[in-house]
Amino acid sequence: MYDYLKNLDLSDRGVIILWGVSLLILLIFLIILARRISESILASVENNGRINQYLAAVPADRIGTINAVYQNTRKHLSAAMILCIIGGSFGFQRIYLGKKSSAISMFLFFWTGIPSIISLFDLAAMPKIVSEFNLGVAESLYNQIAAPKLE
The pTM is what? Predict the structure, then answer.
């Protein structure tokens, strides 16, 4: 193998080095995405536990109202991920999650390719993003409807 590399001219060695560096960059990128996915899933589990605590603390006479409003307001992970896969470069997932200003900037700059990379990271973090949105909805509903009134 070393003799083969030794006999290559400079341009062939450059191609091999370029491939090696490209594969190294791809590997680092995949490691970062895998770590982001695992952190996102752990945060999602924690947020879902907090959502369940809010819903469990609702008085029995208000549970129907809270559940109905929460079910109609919360966002679904599968829908957000499908939107991110199909139209992530255009910011469809951000529109769905109520982040309209960042969606507009993604739409304006989709031709640069940068929003495509951002949407990959959004896809990796989607469980956390959706659970944070749903936690905000549950917390808001609890504070508006079910929180004990201080007198």
Answer: 0.76
